[in-house]
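Please produce the structure of this protein holding magnesium ion.
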Amino acid sequence: MTSGAKSKAPVKGKVLKAFGNLLQVEFEGDVRQGEVGFVELPDTSLKGEVIEVAGNEVKLQVFEDTRGVALNTPVTFTGDLLEAELGPGLIQTIFDGLQNRLEVVAETSGYFLPRGVYVPAIDREVEWEYVPVAKVGDTLMRGETLGTTLEGRFTHHIMVPFSFFGKVTLTWVIEPGKYTIETVVAKGTSETGEELSFTMLQKWPIKMGLFEGERIKPTKMMDTGSRILDTQVPIMKGGTFCTPGPFGAGKTVLQHHLSKYSSVDLVVLVACGERAGEVVEILREFPHLIDPHTKEPLITRTCIICNTSSMPVSARESSIYMGITIAEYYRQMGLDVLLLADSTSRWAQALREMSGRLEEIPGEEAFPAYLASRIASFYERGGVVSLADGRQGSITICGAVSPAGGSFEEPVTQATLAVVGAFCGLSKARSDARRYPSIDPLISWSKYVGDVAKLLESDAPGWGEGVARASYFLREGTEIGKRMEVVGEEGVSLDDLTIHLKGELYDFCYLQQNAFDPVDAYCPLDRQIPLFRLINHIFETKFDFPNRDRAREFFLMLQSKIKTMNSTEYQTDEYKKLFAEIEEYIESARKL
Ligand code: ADP
Ligand code: MG
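Below is the modeled complex.
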């Protein structure tokens, strides 16, 4: 045993009723809510989770097709909650919602496990170079480091299991060397005199938050390489945000952008209920992409959980919890983790479906009444931890929301908006107009604007005022644009037209960014800052145009020059030349 938590003897039961993959099971003994049970069929056994206990009957949600299950089919309850396996070997791996390693079966069954087959999450054969850190006689608590091993480029801390509460004094530690995750690497005695032994593998129930240390406020910005996000809707490491948008608006493209370019150590990508084709695309694309921060393959900082729309709905619910649990485990090592969930609406649909089968009283749009609290408790698992030795780790959460019909006035979007720190609303109007990323800057908001302005003050003096100015031109410019639609261009003054053109320039040259342009796709902060300064210079310049045509012509030309610069490799001679040319061009228009 790897910790102080004891498993009880398995309890036997038998099936009374089946409604789809929800089974009513009668049992003798002691079964808990959330416990895992196996339905024993002659040729296979199917995994399920207890979702309701009443007297000596439970409702068991089976994660797979239940064909063949009949009256009195035996069920074995394991005594364990639905758990994640935690240890070295999670990074660079692709799991399904129950932590089956999809790569293992990919070649033979094309990403779909045959029914009743479960693959261990972490390879039992691989040997890891283990370096003990804690010594005999040391007294440790949960989460403290026993030793380390190198997982890719990360120092993976082997920690006292989080399921162990209290103190353990080590009585034996292994020599440095190569061991599998099941080798005992340390032994100790608990305060109550219990003998404990530890391996590199530990388990944690996925529906419970894993957290040890002090919860502190976010202190660092997450640079995303997306100008509209970093400038208009900035995100702090340890913060939460959501990206709701109608079908085809660009949620998945945005999530992929974030997974590639965000300035974090590790990305956990949960593809939840989305089209299988998109997931296969990620799996094909990822191994070939290079992390712009470290120049290493991106996959070396990524863990993917995927549960596509063609996999069972019930495992979809667990995929989100699986992802956040893995993120929490690495946060405890002092890493900055980004968790991307695409999409939380599909997850909410799974909750709705299960609630319907349980015949619970439905809330708004037939979602269960506890939808909002489930969403809140998911986002609450994000945040920053300050560890005992002063290191910090964080989880930033980004949830895509795909509201039916694209209206944000629906329960999942509304419940999410109530708890997140930033809202990036994707709009159909913008995506139809090919204004990508189609985040609508006029409806989006971030509670981190002030924090980020403070952080950037030394590298980019006046950043905060710049953002306020940009927002003004955007809002005013849009209003004037609407007026012009009604009264025509002649109906507004030349000054108003100029405000409109400045707003449009900001949109076209700064907020918009082509995800498929090799240079423009990624615009890190050090590149954003001079461009933003240039844009603000344009905002502040009082142009002296003789007429409307000249104003239009000038901004059109300026736009094309800046766009060319945006697609030019940063700080090259070519880039510098373009930048100087643009400044000169702006100067020339003052004198017109
Ligand atoms: P959603 O996930 O919201 O349904 P997608 O992310 O799949 O939508 O985007 C749909 C299409 O929109 C993409 O295939 C792509 O052609 C286009 N698109 C979205 N975002 C961008 C972007 N930033 N740059 C260029 N094209 C984009
Ligand atoms: Mg999508």
